[in-house]
Hints:
Elements: H1 3-21, H2 24-34, H3 39-67, H4 69-90, H5 93-121, H6 125-152, H7 165-181, H8 196-206, H9 210-239, H10 245-251, H11 253-269, H12 275-298, H13 314-317, H14 321-325, H15 328-337, H16 345-373, H17 376-379, H18 384-407
Helix pairs in contact: 1-5, 1-6, 1-7, 2-3, 2-9, 3-5, 3-16, 4-5, 4-7, 5-16, 6-10, 6-11, 6-15, 8-16, 9-10, 9-15, 9-16, 9-18, 12-15, 12-18
Amino acid sequence: MKANAIKVSLYLNYFVFAILLNSVGIVILKVQNIYGVDEVAAATLELFKDLSIAAVSFLVASFLPRIGYKKGMLMALALVTLGCLIMYFGNSFWAARVLFASIGVAFAVIKVSVYSVIGLITEDSKAHNSLMSSIEGFFMFGIALAYFLFPAFNSETDVNAWLNVYLLLAAMTIASFLFLYFSKFDEGHEIPGSNLVEDFTAMFLLLAKLLVIVFLASAFLFVMIEQGIMTWLPTFNSRVLQLSESLSIAMSSILAISLGVGRMLAGVLTKRISWFWILVGCIGAAMLMVLFVLPKTVGASVGKIDNLADLPLIGYAFPIVGLFIAPIYPLINSAVLSALPKKVHSPMSGLIIIFSALGGTLGSIITGYLFKHLGAEKAFYFTLIPMALLLLALVMLQRLTRKEIAAA
């Protein structure tokens, strides 16, 4: 297996889907302004995306090792290309729902494939931690690019000009398809069971392990925090900081960039420091940001803002929370996957994605409800609750992974 070529393929596919998948916050703002839907209805775009991810992850985690990860990723890229074209020509709220449903289906396949292949091309837990963190970090830079791509296509004279971004995104998915198609991909995969019934049984048996239960709860809580903030940050910027739509979206790139930097740094730090202590420090810092930096951001007097240079420094502060929450997801994923046998990585990846998707949906919908009923100024304070619960879950997770490795 030519690991370097495979790594490039994983990075490229993840990067393309980062732009597509996490444009949901931008599109939520757009559909409110253009199609006239309210906050709760707009938040259902997250539902279409994440429930598609959850449902398909459950089904494909067993099928993928049999049909091949390369073939699965090629089909996913073809599907999302079609979704982009539907959005461009459909130009409606229903087209946006179709788009995010197709993105969800395709990303489920991509993510199960990426997580499974990482296990095949790394030899120990430190290499697994490092590659997982760097790929997830690269993913966040794709998200940051989305916050610049969409405003670049905005026009004050043509309300539909922003849809042209989907032609570019379709071209990017086609390019990614061609790169993967011509890459040599000797998978050498391990198949969990002898038939599909055994594969599904293996997935459900994983749920009987306390380690898996605690880990899935941790993943659920983290994604609830991350997606709640990321999805609604453009709306927060628009309503609290009084930024224009384009500036609100561009400003959100700071969160994505800080998430990317945080994950890249985590990939380096885990070679020297235990993942547990890194995450304890990160969650503590994130909670302090919400308690002390967010109130100053909400209370800032920003005046008229024509470009990002006019924004006071405090306006840039809260999105830096991404630097601290960034390492959580890849490191807990890696800690658990590297503690489990490689033959269960595919079904375990399916479970990770299912619970992550459910956490993302719940986080976005709850935050949307809070934005509507309590206001944008107060909604993000409620992230302190899942942060505190996540800290408790990490303590349990560390003990259980140690036991699992010792018993292997």
